Amino acid sequence: METQSKKNSGNQLMLAIIIIAVIAVIAIAVTKKPEKTEPPKGQIPLSEEKLIACWHREEKEKEYRYDIVFEQGNGFIYSRFTGDEISPSLVSIHGKFSIEGNVIAVSFELDGEALSEKYSAVLTEENKLTLSPIENGGKTLVGTYVKEGEGEIESEKKDTSENAEVKDEPDDESSSPSDCGASSEPTGNEGGNQSDGGAATDSKPSEQDRDSSWKKAYLDYINQAYYEGFISYNLIYVDDNDVPELYLCGAGEYIGEKICTYTNGVIVELPLYRLCGTSFKERSGLIMNSNGHMGYYSDSLYKLENGVFTRLHYGTIEEVETSTSYVYVYTVDGVEVAGAEYYRVFAESYGTDVGMEAHLQAQEYPRFISRLQ
Fold first, then answer.
1. Residues 270 and 309 sit within 8 Å (Cβ to Cβ)
2. What is the rounded CA–CA span in Å between residue 362 and residue 354?
């Protein structure tokens, strides 16, 4: 009896030892840290510093273009465009992002619904970013993107050779007004050579042009203006110095357009109508803005000089019904004039040859800001 009791006690002790050993092995396995593994060749660790940039991808032979702009302060903008950069984007999303290891988490609002999505991210030395779907993640941003280069502003590539060819201005020709007032439809080739930035390339850059302070000022200005509905931009040379003016185009006619100039560390803006467009005579300081709707049209002629916009003339054309027909009533600077006088005033001040349209070569937000960074 005593021997049986000792045997049972021994078995219980052995069982206890086995249980303790198993628990210890499990605890060690659970708490053991996984060994660090090197990322695949060509892949680099994901970080906010390397992510902040404009990334884009194209598909279906450039029928669509997708851009993601990761900004400082953990903001991001995702846009889908048609192949035409001047057209408004089909989709535009603003939100926040965060990095969790090799996962990018985003939060945004779409069609009034608050959404949160996560993507597995692979960043390579070739500046390619691949966002892949993960379980319970998202699909909005899926794809492989290429980092937009910091390319210099095309409009600043000046021809400094002494024998640089400069195109002549077109001969003055009388032209009939368009439906939107005194200025006729421009072709975009008048007023000198126009590069990607919409600016001439016929003068040497000055010390002021080398100063990049205007780039930062315009970039900060655009980052605010975008949220106000200004979606595309251009650099143009309105006055006769080497710091370009900034053109902004609104998403709708009610938002309008703007031309801004940077002078003495300050941005000065000129709000404009968008309906019938804005043209300018390069390096002359002259800007023509036309507006109109059913039976009422207007033209405003401005001059930019020494950092100040001044309106030189304001004209209106109103269709008035009489007992037998319709007639047009013209005014210039508040005074009623004959039609011939109306066109003479603007022809003498602005010229009969058309200026360059400010919206030509305008680019959407993601593409344009990469030129200023």
1. yes
2. 19
Tens of pLDDT, residues 76-123 = 878 776 555 444 445 667 788 999 888 999 988 776 678 889 999 999
Residue type for position 58: E
Distance (Å, rounded) from C-alpha 120 to C-alpha 195? Answer: 40
What gap in Å lies between CA 285 and CA 310, rounded to an integer? Answer: 10
Give residue-wise pLDDT tens across range 356-368.
999 888 888 888 8
Q: Are 54 and 72 contacting, i.e. CB atoms less than 8 angstroms apart?
A: no
Contact partners, residue 278, CB within 8 Å, separation at least 6: 247, 257, 259, 272, 287, 288, 289, 290, 357, 358, 359
Residue type, 164: A
163 or 133, which is more confident? 133
CB 103 within 8 A of CB 121: yes
Contacts of 344 (CB under 8 A, 6+ apart): none
Helix (H) or strand (E) holding 309: strand 308-321
**Residue 55 CB neighbour total at 10 angstroms:** 25
Residue 33 sits at φ, ψ, to 5 deg, of -80, 140
Phi, psi (deg, nearest 5) at residue 71: -110, 160
Give dist(CA 125, CA 122) in Å, integer: 10
